[in-house]
């Protein structure tokens, strides 16, 4: 599990270490310099500089391409290894963008290391203030110091284009809001120049965070220079996991500067002296929890793996109410996702003609009613039209019935108790009652905007995409449900921690992929139905696991090329087997 620490948490962790004389900045700067030396030192034997971008063979466009973990560095690292690392950095040029605080201090000390290794290093001070000791060390090492006020932005752009590497050390966890002038104007112009320069743009390393991102919420309120790599200190920051900011961070490298080891939220009490509950951490909203990312190694512990004592009913039955005669495909895709994620059984409820189509693809599906341990409601079912009332081949009526069981409106429902559910597409327009946390809403940004509008918020799709965590948490608070917002980075929030998953290649953005995800999650919820009802934070964790498995299945089925939604479902068994084996 990757855990992000808010800026307040980072400060709290730093305080005692700094008081004890731990050389945090020296460690950070040394590690940062090592990373830069490694990247720049990977130049091939002909040492093509200036303008050569470390590890980027010409003609290979890597920016924005996602690895299986959603970060763009894998292919680049491979290319670098193939190019061979010579480690000679003499004569290579580095441009440092230096802000007034400790982030600038890290950058100046790192610059001093680079200069001592023979690099030509120029620091542009964006402010009248700069970290004094860092600046002194940088000068002593032979670094060149310019101030933005003296040389102006166009000449920084020229320097940038002549450099092998740029270090963005304008602001770190001390940042508040969008970058202010003059740093803001500098970064805006550099970001535009980068777009124009394409592959000629130097390798860009963000120091701790790309300056200008929202450290704690991942919003991007103003200009940001996209990084190829972010070297972050002590702990990940939420903005490095959350969209849209995470798209600007490149490959994220976490440097251990001596913070106490913590894995997960469990260790926090010991560090912060917290006595009032698991999520009540110093400096954070107690209700909000942390931002995390589920990793492949976490899946085995959460996956409902059968034991020799299980039979099909103990393993969990998924009930799917999806598709209509107009949109039968969604029923096929949702049931396929559910079956191939490995439940005890999948029941399909819907029009007979659609059930027949489902059986053609998945003869394992049972097309009669009966007890289920989770519901998948709504894929391929149209939104309810308030004027015309329920329609869709009776699917809306069936969904309303299942929702009544989920929300507890029916005290003696056919399923016999509290029921987890995936609520997708058309079913999102059928919510009439407050939901439990074990109901998981799975909208994309447009659907979430509509849902929030219905709850009285003035928000559109673009606003949701600009502040995904905020709106996901708002929807959770308003509905009670766990909310999973689909996208290139999928954000999940319920009671407690939030999750930001970047597992899928962009090819996954194809019709029906979401239906498959709904089915996979339905199986997870059915397999652990008693647990999700007992632990109200578990549904979000399982939802993140479903997103991870779905994303990896999409990557496997895609193999770098187009992928059809049904192929994502077909890749699920191999992906699950791999994750359970590792
Ligand atoms: N965690 C760790 O282990 C370690 C952390 N370390 C490093 O310390 C960094 C934190 O340093 P920090 O606290 O000095 O704050 P920092 O980010 O440099 O910025 C503050 C300055 O920026 C300014 N400023 C703020 N917002 C702005 C805006 N929108 N636009 C423009 N300017 C803005 C603000 O000005 P003010 O608002 O006060 O006028 C203030 O002067 C951290 O990110 C890491 O790199 C390592 O050294 C040791 C190990
Ligand atoms: N750019 C992207 N990169 C990776 N995955 C994406 C991207 N855009 C969307 N996705 C994923 O593709 C799926 C699309 O789901 P959805 O929008 O519900 O489509 P449908 O309703 O047609 O099934 C979701 O799992 C979403 O997270
Ligand atoms: K920075």
Give structural notes.
- With 582 residues, the protein is of the alpha/beta class.
- The protein has two domains: 283 residues, YjeF N-terminal domain (Rossmann fold, 3-Layer(aba) Sandwich); 286 residues, UDP-N-acetylmuramoyl-L-alanine:D-glutamate ligase, CATH 3.40.1190.
- The strands form two sheets. Strands 1-9-17-16-15-14-13-12-10-11 form a ten-stranded mixed β-sheet, with helices on both faces. Strands 4-3-2-5-6-7-8 form a seven-stranded parallel β-sheet, with helices on both faces.
- β3, α5 and β4 form a beta-alpha-beta unit.
- The radius of gyration is 26 Å and the shape is elongated.
- The protein starts with a strand and ends with a helix.
- The relative contact order is 0.10.
- Ligand NPW binds next to α1, α2 and α4.
Low-confidence stretches: 45-52, 55-85, 263-286, 411-415
CATH class value of the largest domain: Alpha Beta
Task: Report the radius of gyration as a whole number of Å.
Answer: 26 Å
- Shape verdict: elongated
In the CATH hierarchy, what is the superfamily of the largest domain?
Ribokinase
Give the mean pLDDT: 88
Q: What is the tally of helical segments?
A: 22
Q: What name does the CATH topology of the largest domain carry?
A: UDP-N-acetylmuramoyl-L-alanine:D-glutamate ligase
How many domains make up the coordinates? 2
Total beta-strand segments: 17
Q: Which small-molecule species are bound to the chains here? A: ligand NPW, adenosine-5'-diphosphate, potassium ion
């Amino acid at each position: 599990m990757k855990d992000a620490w808010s800026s307040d948490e980072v400060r709290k962790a730093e305080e005692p270490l700094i008081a004890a004389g731990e050389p945090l900045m020296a460690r950070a700067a040394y590690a940062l310099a090592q990373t830069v030396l490694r990247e720049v030192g990977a130049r091939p034997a002909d040492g093509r500089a200036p303008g050569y971008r470390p590890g980027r063979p010409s003609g290979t466009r890597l920016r924005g391409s996602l690895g299986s973990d959603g970060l763009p560095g894998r292919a680049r690292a491979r290319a670098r290894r193939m190019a061979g690392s010579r480690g000679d950095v003499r004569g290579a040029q580095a441009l440092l963008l230096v802000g007034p605080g400790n982030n600038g201090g890290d950058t100046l000390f790192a610059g001093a290391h680079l200069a001592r290794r023979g690099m030509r290093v120029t620091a542009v001070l964006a402010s009248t203030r700069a970290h004094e000791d860092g600046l002194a060390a940088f000068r002593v090492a032979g670094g060149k110091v310019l101030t933005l006020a003296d040389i102006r932005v166009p000449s920084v752009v020229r320097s940038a284009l002549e450099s092998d590497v740029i270090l963005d050390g304008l602001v770190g966890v001390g940042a508040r809001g969008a970058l202010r002038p003059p740093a803001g104007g500098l970064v805006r112009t550099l970001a535009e120049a980068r777009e124009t320069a394409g592959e000629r743009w130097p390798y860009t390393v963000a120091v701790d965070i790309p300056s200008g991102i929202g450290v704690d919420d991942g919003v991007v309120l103003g200009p940001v220079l996209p990084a190829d790599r972010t070297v972050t200190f002590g702990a990940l920051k939420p903005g490095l996991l959350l969209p849209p900011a995470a798209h600007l961070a490149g490959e994220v490298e976490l440097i251990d500067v001596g913070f106490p080891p913590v894995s997960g939220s469990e260790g926090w009490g010991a560090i912060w002296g917290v006595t009032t509950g698991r999520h009540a951490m110093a400096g954070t909203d107690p209700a909000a929890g942390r931002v995390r990312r589920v990793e492949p190694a976490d899946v085995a512990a959460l996956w409902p793996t059968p034991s020799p004592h299980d039979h099909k009913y103990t393993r969990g039955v998924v009930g799917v109410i999806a598709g209509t005669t107009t949109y039968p495909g969604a029923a096929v895709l949702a049931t396929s996702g559910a079956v191939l994620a490995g439940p005890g059984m999948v029941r399909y409820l819907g029009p007979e003609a659609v059930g027949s189509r489902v059986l053609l693809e998945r003869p394992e599906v049972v097309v009669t009613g009966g007890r289920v341990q989770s519901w998948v409601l709504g894929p391929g079912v149209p939104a309810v039209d308030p004027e015309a009332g329920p329609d869709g081949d009776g699917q809306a009526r069936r969904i309303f019935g299942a929702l009544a069981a989920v929300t507890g409106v029916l005290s003696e429902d056919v399923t016999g108790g509290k029921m987890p559910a995936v609520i997708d597409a058309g079913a999102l327009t059928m919510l009439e009652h407050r939901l439990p946390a074990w109901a998981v809403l799975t909208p994309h940004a447009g659907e979430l905007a509509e849902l929030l509008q219905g709850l009285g918020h003035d928000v559109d799709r673009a606003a949701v995409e600009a502040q995904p965590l905020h709106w996901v948490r708002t929807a959770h608070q308003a509905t009670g449900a766990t909310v999973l917002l689909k996208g290139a980075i999928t954000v999940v929030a319920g009671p407690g921690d939030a999750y930001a998953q970047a597992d899928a290649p962009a090819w996954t953005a194809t019709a029906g992929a979401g239906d498959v995800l709904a089915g996979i999650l339905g199986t997870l919820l059915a397999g652990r139905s008693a647990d999700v009802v007992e632990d109200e934070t578990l549904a979000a964790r399982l939802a993140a696991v479903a997103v991870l498995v779905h994303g990896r299945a999409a990557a496997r089925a895609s193999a770098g090329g187009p992928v059809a939604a049904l192929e994502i479902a077909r890749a699920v068994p191999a992906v699950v087997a791999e994750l359970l084996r590792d």
